[in-house]
Amino acid sequence: MRTMRWYLVLTLVACGASTKEIATAKQAEYKASANVVLDIAIQVAQESYKLGEVDGQGHRFATAPQFYNSEGGRESPGAEGVVQVREGSIRLELIIEVRDATAGHVVVVITPRTYQVLAGSPQPRELAPDDPNLPPWVKGRVDALALAIYDHAKQYVQP
């Protein structure tokens, strides 16, 4: 049930935001230190994801790897914390970086690291961010997180 609610919220957020709003969020330059923007991004990401590795000096962090079914619903761990995956399951983590931009500004870049389970293969295949096999909901999660970070950091946006 929780997975279905998250999927519904994600769908509404992705459908509710225009292409222009998403582009604005992804291209926003912030007139703040990288540490300030990183802290905001971490707080926002923690609302929807467990965090993985955090590199404060490198101004980057990752969400903890999570398995999803082919439609984008989260795969929950079963007995002993093991996730039962099947063909088409996706392992996703988001890499969030705060990078230097122009004139002392910073930008937030979110990159999905995605692996897809294939039938008969002992290893999942990695899907690049521009891979045509990347499910559209992955981009939706990237867009939703970018919008959420932008909404929380708007006070620092350089017009």
Describe this structure in words.
This protein has 159 residues and is α+β, with helices and mostly antiparallel strands. It has one domain: Alpha-D-Glucose-1,6-Bisphosphate, Chain A, domain 4, CATH 3.30.530. It is 35% helix and 23% strand. It is built from four helices and six strands; from the N terminus they run H-H-H-E-E-E-E-E-E-H. The chain has helices spanning 2-16, 19-27, 34-46, 136-153; strands at 51-55, 60-63, 66-68, 90-100, 106-116, 125-127. Strands 1, 2, 3, 4, 5 and 6 form a six-stranded antiparallel beta sheet that branches. A hairpin with a 5-residue loop joins strand 4 (90-100) and strand 5. Helix 1 packs across helix 4, helix 2 crosses helix 4 and helix 3 crosses helix 4 (136-153).
Overall 3D shape: elongated
Examine the secondary-structure arrangement and name the CATH architecture: 2-Layer Sandwich
How many domains make up the 3D coordinates? 1
* Average pLDDT rating: 88
> What are the secondary-structure elements, in order, as H or E?
HHHEEEEEEH
Distance between the termini: 41 Å
Strand content: 15-25%
Biggest sheet layout: 6 strands, antiparallel
